[in-house]
Amino acid sequence: MVETGNTKRTVIALANPAVSGITRLSATDTVRARIALAIELGLMIAGEQLPSDPDVAAALGVSEITARRALKSLADEGVLARKRGRNGGTFVADPRASASIVSITAYLADAADVHRLIDERVLLECALVHHTALNISAGQLDQLEAYVAEAAAAQSWSDYHVADERFHLGVAAASGLEWALPQYGITLHALYRYFLPYPVDYLHGVNGEHARLVVALREHDPVAAVAVIRQHVWALHDSMFVGLAAGDPRS
Questions:
Q1: Does residue 202 have a pLDDT over 70?
Q2: In 3D, which of 177, 168, 123, 172 has the Cα closest to residue 147?
Q3: What pTM was estimated for this model as a whole?
Q4: Which CA distances in Å does 170 have to 62, 148, 178, 205?
Q5: Strand (E) positions, the chain?
Q6: C-alpha 136: how far from its chain's center?
Q7: Would strands 89-92 and 80-83 be described as parallel, antiparallel, or unpaired?
Q8: Distance CA 219, CA 214 (A)
Q9: 17, 91, 118, 212: which sits with the fewest CB atoms below 10 Å from its CB?
């Protein structure tokens, strides 16, 4: 749960005129900010093990070298601990140390942009899903079910993110509206830049909405399908970091 002190720090950070958003951050600093912000918000707890460096890189859309450099720097600052050996890996060390990662403020400063991207995604995805419900083939439905199963089997937030991306791009592609796919891809991936590590149990719960969408699509019911996807995407206003001051998404 986000504490009052964290909320006050967020307000101060957003009021800082020197903050210019994530466009000014290096790739390494974006990884640092996303990991540190997840820890500060309580999405990752002390002792929790992070996925492997390649998996972190894939989930956050950076090179493995960038991910390794960012994680090492966070370990040097006491936020993470890197252990070698058979039981080694990267672990959350001291959550309190995350408050010292100044690049977090760039993410917090982009709150208005994140809300706008969510609204854009709602509009685009509702339109695409309507057409998908009318046009989707049996083979495409089977593929979407495979993505849902992949997400359900995910053991970490990095594995889940890969399945989630495949699912949503698959739904969009099944619409038959090829001219709309580039704009949807731009919006989706712009929003993914703000993706934070979430508890995998929470993500498995979100995946239940994917399953309900597939049911509506299999019935070729555009009204039900649009209702599911609108709720699924609109909820990001509250469940992404921009809404966490009002509640913990794990509750």
A1: yes
A2: 168
A3: 0.83
A4: 22, 11, 12, 20
A5: 80-83, 89-92
A6: 26
A7: antiparallel
A8: 9
A9: 17
**Lookup result for tokens 């509206």:** 177
Assess contact for 203 and 151: CB atoms under 8 A. yes
DSSP state of 15: T
How far is it, in rounded angstroms, from Cα 181 to Cα 175?
Answer: 9
For the record, the structure tokens of 23 come out as: 């466009």
User: Residue 236 is encoded by which pair of tokens?
Assistant: 């990001």
Token digits of residue 19: 């903050």
Q: Phi and psi for 196 in degrees, rounded to 5? A: -115, 155
For 206-233, how does the pLDDT look when each residue is reduced to its tens digit (9 = 90+)? 999 999 999 999 999 999 999 999 999 9
How many beta carbons lie within 10 A of that of residue 244, not counting itself?
22
Residue written as tokens 């991910």? 67
Q: Does 161 or 20 have the greater pLDDT score?
A: 161
Q: Report how far residue 95's alpha carbon sits from residue 74's, in angstroms, rounded to the nearest whole number.
A: 11
* DSSP β-bridge partners for residue 216: none
Pick the closest to residue 30 from 64, 60, 73, 68 (CA basis).
60
Tokens of 227: 């209702």
Q: Which 3 state secondary structure label does DSSP give 34?
A: helix
pLDDT for 57-108, tens place per residue?
999 989 999 999 999 999 999 999 998 877 788 999 988 887 778 888 888 8
How far from 219 is each of 34, 134, 136, 225, 228, CA to CA, in Å? 39, 9, 10, 9, 13
CB under 8 Å to 66, separation ≥6 — which residues?
A: 27, 28, 31, 57
Contacts of 239 (CB under 8 A, 6+ apart): 249
What's residue 11's pLDDT? 38
Q: Say if CB 22 and CB 33 are below 8 A apart.
A: yes
